[in-house]
Amino acid sequence: MAESNAFKTLEEKDIVATRTLLHEAIPLTGSILSGTYVDGVTETNIKNPAHGMYQSVYDYPYLSSSANHIFDITVGVGAGSGLTVDPTTGQKAKKKNIYGQMAQLLVGYDATGSVMQFDADGDFTTTTDKYNDVIVIPFSRLLVKDEIKKGTFSMTLAVNVTHITTPYASTVEITDSDGSDKYFVNSPVGEYGILYASNDVGGELTVEESKVGLIYYQAGIVVLTKDILTSTLLGGDCELAAGTTADTLLTDSTIEAFADGLRNRIVNIQFNNTTELNSTIYFCRANHNEFNYSTNPTYVDGSKIRVKTNSTDEPISYITSIGLYNDKNELMATAKLSEPLKKSPSTEFTLRCRLDY
Questions:
Q1: Do 180 and 118 have their domain in common?
Q2: In terms of pTM, does the model score above 0.70?
Q3: What domain range is 294 assigned to?
Q4: How many of the other CB atoms lie within 10 Å of CB of 37?
């Protein structure tokens, strides 16, 4: 859209930056997480690395080329834990290292340079209300995209005291019910909210009793207190394996065994992800006295303009594309119109070009 040897400079008022948030619903059913893909007794969509520090869950057998990584499961035990973890069978060092790593990443350091603990209230104003034994679920970036949309996270967890498979008799629903307007920003990884539990076991939980974890929106990580599996307020001391409670698995067994038990109690997980689409919009204005002639060599025949029959006829051109140039007149981007626009001294156009990134 230019006359011969002429460029039109875009001014600041002609350029606008915008941000658009796109959301997608992500449902993860219990059947995906456990029991769908079994080769003998081995769940082929579950991968346990040799180091044993976490378990990875896939939507198909993980050796398949079409498999997608969904999330990981791991557990951490903090310095303030009341549990005595066996250094050999209970992977004591690994569980402490995981807690330290996750706290360092998600919570950060205090004024003395010490790694802070996960705080149930998110305000760190007291030394109480700390999560010392945590379940950590980092979701795949493929699902989370740029972040989890605030106020959309939901996780249904079976809390039967006796070890069961399906159907689940008693469940709790974990949500970030006030995440859309009561989130915190004092984390190194961005915004996070508090997770609350409501149950169908009976009895009304107070606000403090219902706090069971934290969700880090941009990081795509959920941190749950292990008390959700042991609290009598939420159903009692659950058996994650036959005859084995969550506390027993934390103290005397491996992270893999704990993750197996937890997976089989997950009924459903659902949230909306967020894709942030940044755009720059250029308003390219062709005023009545601009771009009425074409630079195409066939525009003229000898000394005459082909589109003019009489000398009194208006010159006209057809706009077919827009070129965006840098300050050295180097072409950086081209926008094509769906159909040519007839341009003459009696018409004006404002063409809107958007670059997404």
A1: yes
A2: yes
A3: 287-356
A4: 18
